[in-house]
């Protein structure tokens, strides 16, 4: 028996030795499951889903995705293909990926029907523990990065969607919806929509970006690519970012089709510590098709819409919800935006919108016989020439109150407490009288087209300058006494970034802990009846004395002019005192810095006449300075008046007039200039080339995407040969790309150096909330452009360096550079 058993074992071993050797490799661990079927990668699970059949995928462990596929030069870690219907359960786990050094990189591209949920969510933690996140990785500043890019139907029910990368050239979004600049048009599906019912969505720069386009062909006209719905959840960005919901609109000029853009918010929260809850920007005439309706939810931040080239803004309508700013200007018919009286929520959300006015709601202001429940509502309702009368003490919270038409604001002896960065923003002729304005921040911002008249107003800022003037004017009304005071450490009564005209016969005291007035850049002050008291840091309006000396030590002005007839202003040494003299300039005086306005002078002052004035010699050898009769009156006779989309009195008048007159720019159509239309890189280079006389250069151009015999070829060849342009790192120039504001700053800085202009100015950009979005390579040129007065912010707190430069902006920047060259 033992022998037989031994024989059997021996035979079995011999058979085994004759069998081929088999490698028993260990299978990779599963990261996801569909039912009981495990998958070693999430992409494999996506690919296994049957077209048109709803399939749930459960994440079973944390996933760090490193593989990616390339579509149209863009990299995607994960792709849900068209016709897939997927429910992705994060199940408390994290799916993460990191961007490349350059190029467009997205963690998850959805072209199908995708729902994201998280079974770890509870009543106490409705978001859940699961995440889809784009990490900074080895390259902290990619060209552009999205965590999710949606070209299908995307629903977020729970979980966190986060983008932790930082800005380099473009933007980094948590979710980008319908970005036609990335995917070709043949990827358009019939219904691109984004629905947020829950979860937490946050991005370094933008939580959700909606890219809405005009279709390029009739085949695409039925594609509904602009649907966004929010019923719950939270969209949030931090203090270094601007937009929670960023809506970019582009227009293919070859198409007349405009798809509706539908944005519906009935719940959830939009939270922006940096300023903008929703920001609409258009490079085409699309705003007439944009519809945003807010019927509920919490909105922390400003809802803002620029004008498109046709003068339209987005159609925004609020019928409910709680807000940090007064949204009276966009409430639906029959609704009111009123102060929040709920002690538990009013500190976080001072305003709410309702269709039923609560009994006992206090009247804040009135216009004639009409009562209003917020001051901004009264200002918005007032017609030109009317007076808004304050009925009770009130606060300015969130967005500033814009005085953008000729009206009078009678404070009626009441106090306005300013809790906004700017209290009142002056964009037209406005009078504010009879009351007190106090708060931590600036009481007034006076724009280049603003003229503020004060009559018995006391304004105080405790932590910043009291007034910021960006080229406008202040008048102290006759027989009135006014004061502008800044009490914070190293603060100014008036801080100026432009030309300031201060006149009037009333009394005006301006005081600050550092200076009464501080001027930055090449600013010009016009004085009519002021003297400066060095000891008390005051400007006081009184009868004009025979001689005035103003200390430059505390004035901080780079130049000073006198607008009073028969007087001129002069400073004799760098940092020395300013002096104002009668009409005859003494022969022994150095007059190199003198600037004269209207009046009769005893000697030749022609080279000192202020801008817009000319000097004429009289028969008795005296000289008379008058306003230049050839200066544009900015009316129907102006060269830009022929364009239906231009206003001769608009902020861009000087620049557009200059470029049209010089032949540097023409209209986009016979009756359209397109002031808000984006400018291409080829066009700005061609303009500079023509300014130089269209020189022919023998230079071997290295840009691979600049073909020969194009209208811009020789201009780009010249610009590269001079070093004015450098192109992208991948040997492209991008002639058809829109030129960004930071790109334009860099180009104009190099052009200025080419023309022999010193480019030493550098500005402190800390006042701009989006300063971190400036690309590292552009920081120096943007600091120069702001410091030299070449570029201004699009608002007091937003520089928009990566935004497209408009034709109007480019015209103004070109004019300033040309004027610097002429000097």
List keywords for this structure.
18-stranded mixed sheet, 10 helices, mainly beta, 13% helix, single chain, 823 residues, 58 strands
List the helices and strands and how they pair.
Layout: H1 2-18, E1 32-34, E2 37-39, H2 42-48, E3 54-59, E4 63-64, E5 69-71, E6 74-80, E7 85-89, E8 94-97, E9 104-110, E10 113-117, E11 131-134, E12 144-150, E13 153-156, E14 160-163, E15 172-177, E16 191-196, E17 200-203, E18 206-213, E19 224-230, E20 234-237, E21 243-250, E22 261-265, E23 269-282, E24 290-294, E25 298-305, E26 315-318, E27 322-323, E28 336-339, E29 351-354, E30 365-367, E31 370-372, H3 375-381, E32 387-390, E33 394-396, E34 401-403, E35 407-410, E36 415-418, E37 422-426, E38 429-439, E39 442-446, E40 451-461, E41 467-469, E42 473-476, E43 481-486, E44 492-496, E45 500-504, E46 507-512, E47 515-519, E48 525-527, E49 530-533, E50 538-541, E51 548-550, H4 552-555, E52 561-562, E53 567-571, E54 578-582, E55 595-596, E56 599-601, E57 613-617, E58 623-627, H5 653-662, H6 681-691, H7 713-722, H8 741-754, H9 779-787, H10 807-822
Parallel strand pairs: 3-7, 4-8, 6-9, 7-10, 8-11, 9-12, 10-13, 11-14, 12-15, 13-16, 14-17, 15-18, 16-19, 17-20, 18-21, 19-22, 20-23, 21-23, 22-24, 23-25, 24-26, 25-27, 32-35, 33-36, 34-37, 35-38, 36-38, 37-39, 38-40, 39-41, 40-42, 40-43, 41-44, 42-45, 43-46, 44-47, 45-48, 48-52
Antiparallel strand pairs: 1-2, 1-3, 5-6, 27-29, 28-29, 30-31, 30-32, 49-50, 51-54, 53-54, 53-55, 56-58, 57-58
Helix pairs in contact: 5-10, 6-7, 8-9
